[in-house]
Design goal:
- By secondary structure, the protein is α/β, with parallel strands linked by helices.
- Helix content is 48%, strand content 16%.
- It is built from 20 helices and 20 strands.
- Helix 15 (376-398) runs parallel beside helix 17, helix 17 (424-442) runs antiparallel to helix 18 and helix 18 (456-503) runs antiparallel to helix 19.
Length: 598
């Protein structure tokens, strides 16, 4: 049996393509260690109808897979709970990069394997080079397509041993063509001699890089160099842009090369309210990707993205910033890009600018445009203000007021529209409309958009610029005001929390303060779980500023199962994570020095 409270060891059988013999080699290794007296079981293995591989499964105990039906089709998955109950010394699990079905605890099989390792069980598993998340940019270029199942390179770093399962590309091609790999499947398009050779070289290079950074192979001088490199801190920006995924992967590769800390920063601006469902999903996926690649996720707030990034970089001693540079559609309208601002303002920080093939400005669909910018209330308000302004201007014109005063009146109307509406769209439109309305009602000839006076075009241009700048400045002030209010609110909540906790005189009072303040800060129902002296789970629920006393009904069987898992593993779970992701709650352990409190 595996030893309690001891981290299990991970061995990965790495290949550069399907059918190279990874599963066969893993099973053969399982028989060898069993002959040495080890307790070895098969966790999950797929033979794909290969007779030689199936023969090697004989003689080894196999944990029954978890079976379930979807659309009358039976699916089999690795049963982690049965594996933890059996708790062998070594377990053989095929396909490290596999994505589990929705009824499983974890989204990814590598997370199952991490839990086994944390419980002291040694794991043998298989992996293809195309499934390493950090290398997908390279492997996609080689193979010509992307794979959905991926594992972060951090898993490889946890491996105690990586064995390269190798074969000549020509030999592998011959096996595919004979139908020895998948009898009913033809040779994939990417299985050409050139592509297989490049993938094989990448596998060799990946293994060599791992051997190069291994502390066991370092002299004292080299170890000092690694310790110096550990002071490196890489910062990468997060955004909802689709090509941000490539940026994160490249930043992770740089961090890996320098053995550096990696942080992913997202600057939340008022534009987040205008994100489409796809963009919000992309942003969430990019945050999850960065976390899988070992990055710490940081969110800051402000309208000036460059300033926020650089302020964080300075405070956190960031040594390298990785940022993307998009090419605008209209190159003649040159404005300072985010990358240029950061490069100009960064002093002691190196900036890596990664060019994006896609432009920054994407064509928005009409439906999304209407959803994000058009509001019936703001449209009516804009129409009413312009109508009122024009009526007043006609009255003032009738009493002999000059055109300069009428222009000022219209600019004032644009200012009022910018203040009272919820989007800069209305201020921009109003800037153009006031010019047209002034031309129609007050320029000769009247009630026509024609203008006889040669000075009118300049007057109209200056009027539009003045109105547009007025609208833009007001929108900027509104943004800064919202940002200041948000920061003041959060700071106030934190200060209030500190003062209330100082006055708390017992445990129940501390829990009550913590729950109420979390509810106020997050504006979400909050449940605090803790374990009493008898190790029984107790919960406090906070909803709509009301403190609900301990209630066993709150801790349903499913919640209790998730809470116990989080308590044991000291990891987040629930909504927006890859563990118990179908639950509607987000579970966060309060941990200090490896001790969990709640």
């Amino acid at each position: 049996m595996a030893v309690d409270n001891q981290q299990g060891k991970l061995k990965i059988f790495l290949g550069y393509a399907e059918g190279i013999g990874k599963t066969y080699t893993m099973l053969r290794e399982g028989h060898l260690v069993k002959q040495q007296g080890k307790d070895v079981v098969i966790g999950f293995v797929q033979t794909h109808g290969r007779a030689q591989t199936f023969e090697l499964t004989q003689g080894l105990e196999e944990i029954p897979p978890s079976a379930f039906f979807y659309d009358d089709i039976q699916f089999l998955e690795f049963d982690i709970d049965e594996a933890l109950k059996r708790k062998p010394e070594i377990i053989l699990i095929d396909d490290l990069a596999h994505i589990n079905r929705s009824n499983q605890r974890h989204r990814n099989r590598y997370q199952d394997i991490e839990e086994l390792l944390n419980n002291g069980i040694d794991v043998y598993t298989t992996l293809n080079i195309q499934n390493i998340l950090d290398l997908t940019t390279i492997t996609n270029d080689i193979a010509g397509f992307s794979v959905r199942e991926q594992v972060p390179e951090s898993i490889l770093k946890k491996a105690d041993q990586i064995e390269l399962v190798d074969a000549e590309p020509a030999e592998l091609l011959e096996r595919w063509n004979k139908g020895d790999i998948f009898p009913e499947q033809t040779t994939p398009n990417y299985f050409t001699l050139e592509k297989l050779t490049r993938l094989r070289e990448l596998a060799f290079r990946t293994l060599a890089d791992r051997l190069h950074i291994s502390p066991l192979n370092k002299t004292n001088k080299e170890t000092e160099k690694i310790n110096f490199l550990h002071n490196e801190h890489i910062l990468v920006g997060l955004s909802p842009e689709e090509n941000n995924q490539k940026l994160i992967q490249l930043a992770a590769q740089i961090a890996s090369a320098f053995q550096a800390k990696l942080t992913a920063i997202y600057v939340e601006t008022s534009l987040k309210d205008n994100y489409s469902a796809d963009e919000s999903k992309h942003l969430e996926d990019h945050m999850l990707l960065a976390e899988e690649l070992g990055a710490q996720i940081v969110t800051v707030y402000g309208e000036d993205i460059a300033t926020q990034i650089l302020e964080y970089a300075q405070i956190s001693r960031v040594t390298k910033i990785v940022i993307g540079k998009s090419q605008p559609v209209f190159s003649f309208l040159h404005t300072t890009s985010l990358a240029e601002k950061i490069t100009k303002l960064a002093k002691d920080t190196e900036v890596y600018i990664i060019p994006n093939k896609k432009g920054l400005f994407k064509k928005r669909k009409g439906k999304r445009f209407l959803t994000n910018f058009l509001s019936l209330r703001d449209l009516l308000r804009t129409f009413f203000i312009l109508l009122l302004t024009t009526t007043l201007a006609l009255i003032l014109d009738h009493v002999g007021l000059s055109e300069a005063n009428l222009i000022t009146l219209y600019i004032l109307a644009v200012l009022v529209i910018s203040i009272t509406t919820n989007s800069k769209f209305y201020g921009i439109v109003a800037s153009a409309l006031v010019v047209a309305m002034f031309s129609f009602f007050f320029a000769n000839p009247r009630f026509s958009l024609l203008a006889y006076d040669t000075g009118y075009p300049i007057t109209f241009f200056i009027m539009f610029i003045a109105a547009f700048l007025t609208s833009s400045l007001m929108e900027l002030l509104k943004r800064h005001s919202r940002e200041a209010v948000l920061k003041a609110f959060r700071t106030g909540v934190l200060l209030e929390t500190s003062l209330k906790l100082q006055r708390a005189n017992d445990f129940d009072h501390v829990i009550q303060v913590a729950g109420q303040q979390l509810l106020k800060l997050l504006n979400r129902e909050t449940i605090i779980f803790f374990k009493n002296e008898t190790n029984q789970l107790t919960s406090y629920r906070f909803l709509d500023d009301d403190h609900v006393p301990p209630d066993a009904a709150v801790a349903s069987a499913q919640k209790e199962k998730i809470v116990n898992w989080v308590w044991q593993q000291k990891k987040n779970a629930g909504a927006s994570t890859d563990t118990f992701s179908e639950d509607t709650y987000y579970y966060i352990p309060f941990v200090d020095n490896q001790t969990i409190f709640a």
